[in-house]
Amino acid sequence: MYIIIYDFGTSSVKSCLFEIDTEIHLVTASAAGYGLYISDDGGAEQDTEEWWAALCTTTRDVLDKSDIRAEEIEGMAFCSQMQGSVFVDRDGKAVRPPMNYLDQKGYKEYKNCMGRGIIKVSGCSLYKLVRNLIVNYAGSTSAKDPVWKYKWVENNEQKVYNKIYKWLDIGDYLNARCTGRIVRTADTAFATFLYDTRKGKEGWNKGLLKMYKVNPDHMPEIIDCTDLVGGLTEKAAADLGLVAGIPVFGGGGDTTFVNIGAGCTKPGDTHIYVGTSGWVSTFLDHQTVDIVSMITGVLSAKHGYFNYYAELETAGKCFEWVMNHLALDEVGIYLNHAKITDDIESKYTSIYDFLSGEVSQVPPGANGVIFTPWLHGNRCPFEDSNAAGMFFNIKVETSKRDMIRAVLEGICYHLRWLLEASERKVNSSKTIRFVGGGALSPVTCQMLADITGRTIETVSNTQEVGAIGAALVVAAGIMGVDVLELSKQLVKPVKNYIPNSDNKKIYDHNYNVFNKLYKSNASSFKELNG
Q: Is 275 a domain residue?
Protein backbone atom coordinates (compact mmCIF):
# COMPACT_ATOMS: atom_id res chain seq x y z
CA MET A 1 0.00 0.00 0.00
CA TYR A 2 1.04 3.60 -0.59
CA ILE A 3 0.54 6.26 2.09
CA ILE A 4 1.36 9.97 2.15
CA ILE A 5 2.44 11.43 5.48
CA TYR A 6 3.04 15.13 6.02
CA ASP A 7 5.81 15.65 8.59
CA PHE A 8 4.86 19.16 9.58
CA GLY A 9 7.62 20.81 11.58
CA THR A 10 8.30 24.22 13.05
CA SER A 11 9.85 25.73 9.94
CA SER A 12 9.22 23.25 7.13
CA VAL A 13 7.08 20.35 5.94
CA LYS A 14 8.44 17.14 4.49
CA SER A 15 5.86 15.26 2.45
CA CYS A 16 6.74 11.57 2.45
CA LEU A 17 5.43 8.84 0.18
CA PHE A 18 5.74 5.41 1.83
CA GLU A 19 5.27 1.92 0.50
CA ILE A 20 4.36 -0.58 3.23
CA ASP A 21 4.41 -4.32 2.69
CA THR A 22 6.81 -6.70 4.43
CA GLU A 23 8.93 -3.62 5.15
CA ILE A 24 8.39 0.13 5.21
CA HIS A 25 10.07 1.94 2.36
CA LEU A 26 10.33 5.67 1.79
CA VAL A 27 9.65 5.95 -1.93
CA THR A 28 10.43 9.64 -2.13
CA ALA A 29 10.02 12.87 -0.19
CA SER A 30 9.90 16.58 -0.81
CA ALA A 31 10.41 19.48 1.59
CA ALA A 32 9.42 23.13 1.60
CA GLY A 33 9.77 25.84 4.20
CA TYR A 34 7.55 28.53 5.68
CA GLY A 35 8.07 31.42 8.05
CA LEU A 36 8.19 31.59 11.82
CA TYR A 37 7.62 35.21 12.78
CA ILE A 38 9.11 36.18 16.15
CA SER A 39 8.04 39.50 17.68
CA ASP A 40 9.43 41.54 20.56
CA ASP A 41 6.36 40.86 22.72
CA GLY A 42 7.15 37.14 22.86
CA GLY A 43 5.07 36.26 19.83
CA ALA A 44 5.86 33.36 17.50
CA GLU A 45 3.35 33.20 14.66
CA GLN A 46 2.95 31.54 11.29
CA ASP A 47 0.86 31.84 8.13
CA THR A 48 -1.78 29.27 7.09
CA GLU A 49 -1.40 30.11 3.40
CA GLU A 50 2.35 29.55 3.56
CA TRP A 51 1.61 26.17 5.15
CA TRP A 52 -0.87 25.23 2.44
CA ALA A 53 1.38 26.42 -0.38
CA ALA A 54 4.19 24.23 1.00
CA LEU A 55 1.82 21.24 1.17
CA CYS A 56 0.65 21.73 -2.41
CA THR A 57 4.17 22.17 -3.80
CA THR A 58 5.62 19.15 -2.01
CA THR A 59 2.67 16.84 -2.75
CA ARG A 60 2.89 17.47 -6.47
CA ASP A 61 6.67 17.14 -6.35
CA VAL A 62 6.44 13.75 -4.60
CA LEU A 63 4.10 12.43 -7.29
CA ASP A 64 6.24 13.87 -10.07
CA LYS A 65 9.40 12.23 -8.70
CA SER A 66 7.79 8.79 -8.31
CA ASP A 67 5.98 6.49 -10.70
CA ILE A 68 3.06 6.25 -8.26
CA ARG A 69 -0.27 7.57 -9.49
CA ALA A 70 -2.50 9.65 -7.21
CA GLU A 71 -5.16 6.93 -7.56
CA GLU A 72 -2.85 4.45 -5.81
CA ILE A 73 -2.65 6.45 -2.57
CA GLU A 74 -4.66 4.56 0.08
CA GLY A 75 -4.40 6.98 2.99
CA MET A 76 -2.82 10.15 4.34
CA ALA A 77 -2.20 11.81 7.70
CA PHE A 78 -0.34 14.65 9.38
CA CYS A 79 2.45 14.29 11.92
CA SER A 80 2.74 17.86 13.12
CA GLN A 81 4.33 20.22 15.61
CA MET A 82 2.26 20.46 18.79
CA GLN A 83 0.94 22.99 21.30
CA GLY A 84 0.21 25.58 18.65
CA SER A 85 -3.13 27.38 18.53
CA VAL A 86 -5.23 27.93 15.43
CA PHE A 87 -8.56 29.65 16.00
CA VAL A 88 -11.06 28.99 13.23
CA ASP A 89 -14.54 30.06 12.17
CA ARG A 90 -17.37 27.71 11.19
CA ASP A 91 -15.82 27.20 7.75
CA GLY A 92 -12.52 26.10 9.27
CA LYS A 93 -10.75 29.31 8.25
CA ALA A 94 -8.23 30.82 10.66
CA VAL A 95 -9.44 34.10 12.18
CA ARG A 96 -5.90 35.22 13.03
CA PRO A 97 -2.34 34.00 12.32
CA PRO A 98 -1.61 30.66 14.02
CA MET A 99 0.37 30.88 17.26
CA ASN A 100 3.35 28.53 17.29
CA TYR A 101 4.27 26.53 20.42
CA LEU A 102 7.12 29.00 21.05
CA ASP A 103 4.66 31.90 21.40
CA GLN A 104 4.75 33.33 24.94
CA LYS A 105 2.73 36.52 24.56
CA GLY A 106 0.43 35.12 27.25
CA TYR A 107 2.99 35.55 30.02
CA LYS A 108 0.81 38.12 31.81
CA GLU A 109 -2.24 35.86 31.56
CA TYR A 110 -0.18 32.96 32.90
CA LYS A 111 1.12 34.97 35.87
CA ASN A 112 -2.28 36.45 36.67
CA CYS A 113 -3.83 33.00 36.82
CA MET A 114 -1.12 30.62 38.04
CA GLY A 115 1.04 33.09 39.97
CA ARG A 116 -1.63 33.81 42.56
CA GLY A 117 -2.19 31.83 45.72
CA ILE A 118 -0.71 31.50 49.19
CA ILE A 119 1.00 28.17 48.53
CA LYS A 120 2.97 27.72 45.31
CA VAL A 121 5.00 25.02 43.60
CA SER A 122 7.47 26.12 40.89
CA GLY A 123 5.85 29.55 41.07
CA CYS A 124 2.36 28.18 40.38
CA SER A 125 -0.75 28.02 42.54
CA LEU A 126 -0.71 24.68 44.37
CA TYR A 127 -4.51 24.53 44.37
CA LYS A 128 -4.75 24.83 40.57
CA LEU A 129 -1.83 22.50 39.98
CA VAL A 130 -3.38 19.80 42.17
CA ARG A 131 -6.69 20.08 40.33
CA ASN A 132 -4.87 19.64 37.03
CA LEU A 133 -2.69 16.80 38.28
CA ILE A 134 -5.69 14.82 39.51
CA VAL A 135 -7.30 15.04 36.09
CA ASN A 136 -4.36 14.46 33.74
CA TYR A 137 -0.99 14.35 35.55
CA ALA A 138 -0.08 17.65 33.95
CA GLY A 139 -0.54 21.37 34.34
CA SER A 140 -0.27 24.66 32.46
CA THR A 141 2.96 25.71 34.12
CA SER A 142 4.55 27.61 31.23
CA ALA A 143 3.58 30.84 29.51
CA LYS A 144 4.05 28.92 26.26
CA ASP A 145 1.24 26.48 27.03
CA PRO A 146 -1.78 26.72 24.69
CA VAL A 147 -4.32 27.95 27.23
CA TRP A 148 -2.39 31.19 27.70
CA LYS A 149 -2.41 31.80 23.96
CA TYR A 150 -6.19 31.40 24.08
CA LYS A 151 -6.48 33.76 27.06
CA TRP A 152 -4.19 36.32 25.41
CA VAL A 153 -6.44 36.48 22.36
CA GLU A 154 -9.49 36.83 24.60
CA ASN A 155 -7.89 39.69 26.55
CA ASN A 156 -6.15 41.51 23.70
CA GLU A 157 -8.08 40.78 20.50
CA GLN A 158 -11.73 40.79 21.49
CA LYS A 159 -13.00 41.17 17.92
CA VAL A 160 -10.96 38.14 16.87
CA TYR A 161 -12.07 36.21 19.95
CA ASN A 162 -15.72 36.85 19.07
CA LYS A 163 -15.18 35.18 15.66
CA ILE A 164 -13.82 31.93 17.13
CA TYR A 165 -15.87 28.82 16.44
CA LYS A 166 -13.33 26.22 17.52
CA TRP A 167 -9.82 26.13 18.95
CA LEU A 168 -7.49 23.70 17.12
CA ASP A 169 -3.88 22.60 17.10
CA ILE A 170 -1.92 22.78 13.85
CA GLY A 171 -2.48 19.23 12.62
CA ASP A 172 -6.19 19.53 13.42
CA TYR A 173 -6.43 22.68 11.31
CA LEU A 174 -4.79 20.88 8.39
CA ASN A 175 -7.20 17.95 8.78
CA ALA A 176 -10.09 20.40 8.66
CA ARG A 177 -8.72 22.06 5.54
CA CYS A 178 -8.38 18.66 3.87
CA THR A 179 -11.74 17.19 4.87
CA GLY A 180 -14.01 19.99 6.01
CA ARG A 181 -14.43 18.25 9.38
CA ILE A 182 -13.41 20.23 12.48
CA VAL A 183 -12.12 17.87 15.19
CA ARG A 184 -9.14 17.42 17.51
CA THR A 185 -7.11 14.27 18.03
CA ALA A 186 -6.83 13.10 21.64
CA ASP A 187 -3.10 13.80 21.84
CA THR A 188 -3.44 17.45 20.81
CA ALA A 189 -6.43 17.82 23.14
CA PHE A 190 -4.25 16.52 25.97
CA ALA A 191 -1.55 19.05 25.02
CA THR A 192 -3.90 21.85 26.16
CA PHE A 193 -3.90 20.23 29.64
CA LEU A 194 -7.67 20.61 29.68
CA TYR A 195 -8.20 16.95 28.74
CA ASP A 196 -9.09 14.24 31.25
CA THR A 197 -6.87 11.16 30.88
CA ARG A 198 -8.56 9.08 33.60
CA LYS A 199 -9.92 5.77 32.37
CA GLY A 200 -13.59 6.09 31.53
CA LYS A 201 -13.50 9.90 31.77
CA GLU A 202 -11.43 10.71 28.68
CA GLY A 203 -12.42 14.02 27.11
CA TRP A 204 -12.65 17.72 27.90
CA ASN A 205 -12.81 18.24 31.65
CA LYS A 206 -15.60 20.67 32.54
CA GLY A 207 -13.97 21.62 35.85
CA LEU A 208 -10.69 22.65 34.22
CA LEU A 209 -12.48 24.60 31.49
CA LYS A 210 -14.32 26.48 34.21
CA MET A 211 -11.19 27.05 36.32
CA TYR A 212 -9.28 28.55 33.38
CA LYS A 213 -12.41 30.32 32.08
CA VAL A 214 -12.32 28.67 28.67
CA ASN A 215 -15.55 28.68 26.67
CA PRO A 216 -16.66 25.02 26.33
CA ASP A 217 -18.26 25.85 22.97
CA HIS A 218 -14.79 26.48 21.56
CA MET A 219 -13.69 22.90 22.27
CA PRO A 220 -14.15 20.58 19.28
CA GLU A 221 -15.12 16.93 19.10
CA ILE A 222 -12.24 14.60 20.00
CA ILE A 223 -11.18 11.56 17.95
CA ASP A 224 -8.34 9.04 18.26
CA CYS A 225 -5.16 9.37 16.21
CA THR A 226 -6.08 6.15 14.40
CA ASP A 227 -9.60 7.29 13.50
CA LEU A 228 -10.71 8.28 10.03
CA VAL A 229 -11.41 12.01 9.84
CA GLY A 230 -12.99 11.86 6.39
CA GLY A 231 -12.28 11.87 2.69
CA LEU A 232 -10.18 14.47 0.91
CA THR A 233 -12.49 17.18 -0.46
CA GLU A 234 -12.67 18.09 -4.14
CA LYS A 235 -11.15 21.51 -3.42
CA ALA A 236 -8.25 20.14 -1.35
CA ALA A 237 -7.62 17.37 -3.89
CA ALA A 238 -7.45 19.89 -6.72
CA ASP A 239 -4.98 22.04 -4.78
CA LEU A 240 -2.77 19.13 -3.78
CA GLY A 241 -2.91 17.21 -7.04
CA LEU A 242 -4.51 14.18 -5.41
CA VAL A 243 -7.79 12.32 -5.86
CA ALA A 244 -10.90 13.37 -3.97
CA GLY A 245 -12.03 10.89 -1.36
CA ILE A 246 -8.60 9.65 -0.23
CA PRO A 247 -9.03 8.65 3.45
CA VAL A 248 -7.52 11.21 5.82
CA PHE A 249 -6.69 9.72 9.22
CA GLY A 250 -6.48 11.59 12.50
CA GLY A 251 -2.72 11.62 12.77
CA GLY A 252 -1.44 13.83 15.56
CA GLY A 253 1.60 15.46 17.05
CA ASP A 254 5.23 14.70 16.38
CA THR A 255 5.85 13.43 19.92
CA THR A 256 2.95 11.02 19.47
CA PHE A 257 4.53 9.09 16.62
CA VAL A 258 8.29 9.39 16.98
CA ASN A 259 8.58 6.53 19.47
CA ILE A 260 6.72 4.25 17.04
CA GLY A 261 8.85 5.39 14.09
CA ALA A 262 11.97 4.88 16.23
CA GLY A 263 10.92 1.34 17.15
CA CYS A 264 10.63 2.21 20.85
CA THR A 265 7.45 0.29 21.56
CA LYS A 266 8.22 -1.62 24.77
CA PRO A 267 7.61 0.10 28.13
CA GLY A 268 10.92 1.55 29.26
CA ASP A 269 12.28 2.07 25.74
CA THR A 270 13.91 5.51 25.52
CA HIS A 271 14.64 7.68 22.52
CA ILE A 272 16.27 11.08 22.07
CA TYR A 273 15.14 13.33 19.25
CA VAL A 274 16.96 16.34 17.83
CA GLY A 275 15.23 18.37 15.14
CA THR A 276 14.41 22.07 15.46
CA SER A 277 13.50 21.22 19.03
CA GLY A 278 14.75 18.23 21.00
CA TRP A 279 13.54 15.85 23.67
CA VAL A 280 14.14 12.77 25.77
CA SER A 281 11.17 10.39 25.83
CA THR A 282 10.52 7.05 27.54
CA PHE A 283 7.60 4.85 26.48
CA LEU A 284 5.33 3.87 29.39
CA ASP A 285 2.22 1.81 30.07
CA HIS A 286 1.20 4.24 32.83
CA GLN A 287 1.17 7.98 33.35
CA THR A 288 3.35 9.97 35.73
CA VAL A 289 4.52 13.56 36.15
CA ASP A 290 7.38 15.63 37.59
CA ILE A 291 5.87 19.07 38.02
CA VAL A 292 9.12 20.58 39.33
CA SER A 293 11.09 19.55 36.22
CA MET A 294 8.16 20.16 33.84
CA ILE A 295 8.00 16.54 32.60
CA THR A 296 4.80 14.57 32.07
CA GLY A 297 3.51 11.51 30.28
CA VAL A 298 1.85 12.64 27.05
CA LEU A 299 -0.61 10.45 25.18
CA SER A 300 0.71 7.88 22.75
CA ALA A 301 -1.02 6.98 19.50
CA LYS A 302 -1.71 3.59 21.12
CA HIS A 303 -4.53 3.90 23.65
CA GLY A 304 -3.38 3.21 27.23
CA TYR A 305 0.28 4.11 26.59
CA PHE A 306 2.22 7.30 27.24
CA ASN A 307 5.48 9.02 26.30
CA TYR A 308 7.26 10.51 29.33
CA TYR A 309 8.53 13.59 27.60
CA ALA A 310 11.20 16.15 28.57
CA GLU A 311 11.77 18.92 26.03
CA LEU A 312 14.54 21.26 24.89
CA GLU A 313 12.80 23.86 22.75
CA THR A 314 15.81 24.99 20.73
CA ALA A 315 18.07 22.05 19.89
CA GLY A 316 18.72 21.85 16.15
CA LYS A 317 17.63 25.50 16.06
CA CYS A 318 20.90 26.28 17.89
CA PHE A 319 22.91 24.54 15.19
CA GLU A 320 20.96 26.45 12.54
CA TRP A 321 21.84 29.65 14.41
CA VAL A 322 25.54 28.78 14.53
CA MET A 323 25.47 27.90 10.84
CA ASN A 324 23.95 31.26 9.90
CA HIS A 325 25.91 33.46 12.29
CA LEU A 326 29.28 31.78 12.76
CA ALA A 327 29.88 29.63 9.68
CA LEU A 328 28.24 31.40 6.74
CA ASP A 329 30.00 34.76 6.71
CA GLU A 330 32.86 36.34 4.82
CA VAL A 331 35.45 34.79 7.10
CA GLY A 332 33.55 31.56 7.65
CA ILE A 333 35.23 28.19 7.53
CA TYR A 334 32.61 26.91 5.11
CA LEU A 335 33.14 29.68 2.57
CA ASN A 336 36.92 29.45 2.91
CA HIS A 337 36.70 25.76 2.08
CA ALA A 338 34.30 26.46 -0.75
CA LYS A 339 36.90 28.68 -2.42
CA ILE A 340 39.30 25.74 -2.50
CA THR A 341 36.82 23.08 -3.54
CA ASP A 342 34.96 23.90 -6.76
CA ASP A 343 32.10 21.47 -6.19
CA ILE A 344 31.68 21.27 -2.43
CA GLU A 345 28.27 19.58 -2.65
CA SER A 346 29.77 16.63 -4.48
CA LYS A 347 31.81 15.85 -1.36
CA TYR A 348 29.43 16.98 1.35
CA THR A 349 25.71 16.37 1.07
CA SER A 350 24.94 19.43 3.18
CA ILE A 351 26.60 22.17 5.13
CA TYR A 352 25.65 20.32 8.32
CA ASP A 353 27.78 17.37 7.23
CA PHE A 354 30.64 19.73 6.49
CA LEU A 355 30.40 21.46 9.86
CA SER A 356 30.27 18.10 11.63
CA GLY A 357 33.52 17.23 9.88
CA GLU A 358 35.05 20.52 10.95
CA VAL A 359 34.14 20.15 14.63
CA SER A 360 35.61 16.64 14.65
CA GLN A 361 38.98 18.40 14.43
CA VAL A 362 38.35 19.95 17.86
CA PRO A 363 38.99 17.75 20.91
CA PRO A 364 36.12 16.72 23.23
CA GLY A 365 35.32 19.57 25.59
CA ALA A 366 35.67 22.23 22.86
CA ASN A 367 38.90 23.48 24.49
CA GLY A 368 36.93 24.61 27.53
CA VAL A 369 34.16 26.55 25.77
CA ILE A 370 30.62 25.82 26.96
CA PHE A 371 27.40 26.87 25.24
CA THR A 372 23.90 27.04 26.75
CA PRO A 373 21.18 26.14 24.19
CA TRP A 374 18.38 28.35 25.53
CA LEU A 375 17.88 30.62 22.53
CA HIS A 376 14.15 31.12 23.19
CA GLY A 377 13.95 30.65 26.93
CA ASN A 378 13.67 27.17 28.45
CA ARG A 379 10.98 24.85 29.78
CA CYS A 380 12.63 21.72 31.19
CA PRO A 381 14.09 20.94 33.68
CA PHE A 382 13.59 24.59 34.63
CA GLU A 383 10.99 27.01 33.29
CA ASP A 384 12.32 30.48 32.50
CA SER A 385 11.31 32.52 29.46
CA ASN A 386 14.16 34.94 30.26
CA ALA A 387 16.91 32.32 29.94
CA ALA A 388 19.16 32.76 26.91
CA GLY A 389 22.10 31.21 25.12
CA MET A 390 25.67 32.09 25.91
CA PHE A 391 29.25 31.07 25.18
CA PHE A 392 31.13 30.65 28.44
CA ASN A 393 34.92 30.61 28.96
CA ILE A 394 36.03 32.18 25.67
CA LYS A 395 39.74 33.04 25.52
CA VAL A 396 42.14 34.72 23.09
CA GLU A 397 43.00 31.35 21.58
CA THR A 398 39.36 30.25 21.16
CA SER A 399 38.57 29.44 17.53
CA LYS A 400 35.38 29.43 15.54
CA ARG A 401 35.56 25.63 15.38
CA ASP A 402 35.72 25.51 19.19
CA MET A 403 32.55 27.57 19.38
CA ILE A 404 30.71 25.47 16.80
CA ARG A 405 31.65 22.26 18.63
CA ALA A 406 30.57 23.88 21.92
CA VAL A 407 27.10 24.39 20.47
CA LEU A 408 26.74 20.68 19.67
CA GLU A 409 28.12 19.74 23.08
CA GLY A 410 25.79 22.21 24.80
CA ILE A 411 22.77 20.60 23.15
CA CYS A 412 24.00 17.17 24.30
CA TYR A 413 24.71 18.43 27.83
CA HIS A 414 21.14 19.65 28.10
CA LEU A 415 19.81 16.34 26.75
CA ARG A 416 21.82 14.55 29.46
CA TRP A 417 20.25 16.92 32.00
CA LEU A 418 16.79 15.95 30.68
CA LEU A 419 17.71 12.26 30.84
CA GLU A 420 18.82 12.59 34.46
CA ALA A 421 15.68 14.53 35.34
CA SER A 422 13.53 11.86 33.69
CA GLU A 423 15.18 9.12 35.70
CA ARG A 424 13.95 10.63 38.94
CA LYS A 425 10.55 9.21 37.98
CA VAL A 426 11.09 6.45 35.40
CA ASN A 427 13.71 3.91 34.41
CA SER A 428 15.11 4.68 30.98
CA SER A 429 16.69 2.05 28.75
CA LYS A 430 20.45 1.47 28.82
CA THR A 431 20.54 1.68 25.03
CA ILE A 432 18.95 4.79 23.57
CA ARG A 433 17.62 5.31 20.06
CA PHE A 434 18.80 8.65 18.67
CA VAL A 435 16.59 10.04 15.91
CA GLY A 436 15.85 13.24 14.03
CA GLY A 437 18.14 15.32 11.86
CA GLY A 438 20.77 15.48 14.61
CA ALA A 439 21.29 11.72 14.31
CA LEU A 440 22.56 12.10 10.73
CA SER A 441 25.94 13.22 12.08
CA PRO A 442 28.22 10.42 13.35
CA VAL A 443 30.14 13.09 15.26
CA THR A 444 27.02 14.11 17.17
CA CYS A 445 26.02 10.46 17.75
CA GLN A 446 29.38 9.65 19.33
CA MET A 447 29.30 12.90 21.29
CA LEU A 448 25.88 12.01 22.71
CA ALA A 449 27.09 8.52 23.66
CA ASP A 450 30.17 9.95 25.40
CA ILE A 451 28.25 12.69 27.24
CA THR A 452 25.37 10.47 28.43
CA GLY A 453 27.43 7.32 28.96
CA ARG A 454 24.81 5.31 27.07
CA THR A 455 25.04 3.19 23.95
CA ILE A 456 23.37 5.16 21.14
CA GLU A 457 21.51 3.42 18.28
CA THR A 458 20.35 4.98 15.04
CA VAL A 459 17.74 3.82 12.50
CA SER A 460 17.18 4.25 8.77
CA ASN A 461 15.46 7.44 7.55
CA THR A 462 16.10 9.01 10.93
CA GLN A 463 14.80 12.42 9.83
CA GLU A 464 11.44 10.87 8.96
CA VAL A 465 10.79 8.87 12.15
CA GLY A 466 7.68 10.87 13.01
CA ALA A 467 6.30 10.34 9.53
CA ILE A 468 7.24 6.65 9.68
CA GLY A 469 5.38 6.31 12.97
CA ALA A 470 2.32 8.00 11.50
CA ALA A 471 2.52 5.79 8.39
CA LEU A 472 2.66 2.69 10.58
CA VAL A 473 -0.40 3.85 12.51
CA VAL A 474 -2.34 4.41 9.27
CA ALA A 475 -1.15 1.08 7.85
CA ALA A 476 -2.02 -0.79 11.06
CA GLY A 477 -5.52 0.70 10.92
CA ILE A 478 -6.01 -0.34 7.31
CA MET A 479 -4.54 -3.82 7.91
CA GLY A 480 -6.24 -4.40 11.26
CA VAL A 481 -3.01 -5.21 13.17
CA ASP A 482 -1.38 -3.88 16.34
CA VAL A 483 0.80 -0.86 15.55
CA LEU A 484 3.35 -1.64 18.28
CA GLU A 485 3.94 -5.10 16.86
CA LEU A 486 4.11 -3.70 13.34
CA SER A 487 6.74 -1.17 14.45
CA LYS A 488 8.76 -3.88 16.18
CA GLN A 489 8.76 -5.93 12.98
CA LEU A 490 9.68 -3.16 10.57
CA VAL A 491 11.94 -0.73 12.47
CA LYS A 492 15.45 -2.04 13.21
CA PRO A 493 18.68 -0.33 14.39
CA VAL A 494 21.34 0.19 11.72
CA LYS A 495 24.31 1.48 13.73
CA ASN A 496 25.40 1.89 17.34
CA TYR A 497 27.90 4.07 19.17
CA ILE A 498 29.65 2.91 22.35
CA PRO A 499 30.69 5.52 24.96
CA ASN A 500 34.38 6.39 25.07
CA SER A 501 35.38 6.43 28.76
CA ASP A 502 38.29 8.85 28.22
CA ASN A 503 36.03 11.35 26.47
CA LYS A 504 33.36 10.94 29.14
CA LYS A 505 35.77 12.07 31.86
CA ILE A 506 36.31 15.34 29.98
CA TYR A 507 32.60 15.77 29.33
CA ASP A 508 31.70 15.01 32.96
CA HIS A 509 33.99 17.83 34.06
CA ASN A 510 32.44 20.35 31.63
CA TYR A 511 28.91 19.10 32.33
CA ASN A 512 29.32 19.94 36.01
CA VAL A 513 30.03 23.53 35.00
CA PHE A 514 27.21 23.58 32.43
CA ASN A 515 24.81 22.37 35.12
CA LYS A 516 25.60 25.42 37.28
CA LEU A 517 25.38 28.09 34.59
CA TYR A 518 21.63 28.68 34.75
CA LYS A 519 21.51 29.03 38.53
CA SER A 520 24.51 31.36 38.45
CA ASN A 521 22.96 33.59 35.79
CA ALA A 522 19.20 33.40 36.41
CA SER A 523 19.04 36.81 38.08
CA SER A 524 21.11 38.38 35.28
CA PHE A 525 18.82 36.84 32.64
CA LYS A 526 15.86 38.38 34.46
CA GLU A 527 17.55 41.77 34.72
CA LEU A 528 18.35 41.80 31.00
CA ASN A 529 15.29 40.12 29.54
CA GLY A 530 12.53 40.33 32.14
A: no
